[in-house]
Amino acid sequence: MAHPAVLLSRFALVLEYDGTGYAGSQLQKGVPTVQGVLEQALTRIAGERLRTAFAGRTDAGVHARGQVAAFSSERRLQPGQWQAAINGNLPADVAVVAAREVAPGFDPRRQARQRWYRYTILNQAGRSPLMRFTTWQVGDRLDLAQMRRAARVLAGRHDFAAFCGSIEEGRTTVRTVFETSVTKEPPLIWIDVSGDAFLPQQVRRMAGALVRVGAGRMQVGEFEATLRGARPGSSAHVAPAAGLCLMRIDYEGIDFGNRYEDL
Q1: Which of 27, 68, 142, 256 is the most core-located residue (most Cβ within 10 A)?
Q2: What distances in angstroms separate CA 147 from CA 108, 120, 154, 222, one per listed residue?
Q3: Catalytic residue among 59, 250, 255, 262
Q4: DSSP state of 19
Q5: Tens place of pLDDT per residue across the chain (263 aa)
Q6: Spatial separation of the C-alpha atoms in residues 263 and 258, rounded to whole Å
């Protein structure tokens, strides 16, 4: 006798987290990860192992205000009920800030249209104990005009190999950056970058190079030559993980609510 097919509903979650205490977002054996604590929470709620798919990986110490994860379950809960139940089982440094029911085949990584990252610099001579886990403290006086000139070079479709960390052999390093900006509200400087997708360490390496430009240690022409040269990993100054935050990921036909201002 044939058993009736189990109907699974699929849900997308927007996650906010402080990445300080995690070895990254992706599940890894023997170390705390954001995916790990999320799947533990889901398992406690569902009474069975539920696997998640994330829109992208964040490194150890990197934060998120708009990471997206998806999972499927046969449990008949509304998105708001899932959100409340999951938050009741998560540690204080991870939260679900929005939940939506989505199409059964929804893939948060492949269907993402745009990703927005923000890198935050604390531009002052003295360190700040309260901001040490969310900023990169840079004591040099930074020339924002030069940083903006260099940042404009990044917009468009390029081979970003120079700003890439280790990557699997044969994987393309071509990406499209839609928009960049460098803004200041003393003592903070924000480097905002949006694009279709990003390579490992790409935003942190771009931020590191832009700070070198601002400090006068690299000329804008040299910055541009580094990009055009596309020599893997040639931009070796990787900004610290603490300053980076995944702000938002956009999808066609899914409205998570405009929780943060546009880039």
Answers
A1: 68
A2: 32, 14, 11, 12
A3: 59
A4: G
A5: 445 556 899 999 999 999 999 999 999 999 999 999 999 999 999 999 999 999 999 999 999 999 999 999 999 899 999 999 999 999 999 999 999 999 999 999 999 999 999 999 999 999 999 999 999 999 999 999 999 999 999 999 999 999 998 887 778 999 999 999 999 999 999 999 999 999 999 999 999 999 999 999 999 999 999 999 878 878 889 999 999 999 999 999 999 986 655 54
A6: 12
Task: Please tell me the distance from the alpha carbon of residue 77 to that of residue 154, in angstroms, as a whole number.
Answer: 44
* Region 112-248: CATH code: 3.30.70.660
Top CATH class, 9-110: alpha beta
The verdict on whether omega for the bond into residue 186 sits within 30 degrees of 0, i.e. cis, is: no
Does the active-site annotation cover 93? no
**C-alpha–C-alpha distance, residues 124 and 121, integer Å:** 9
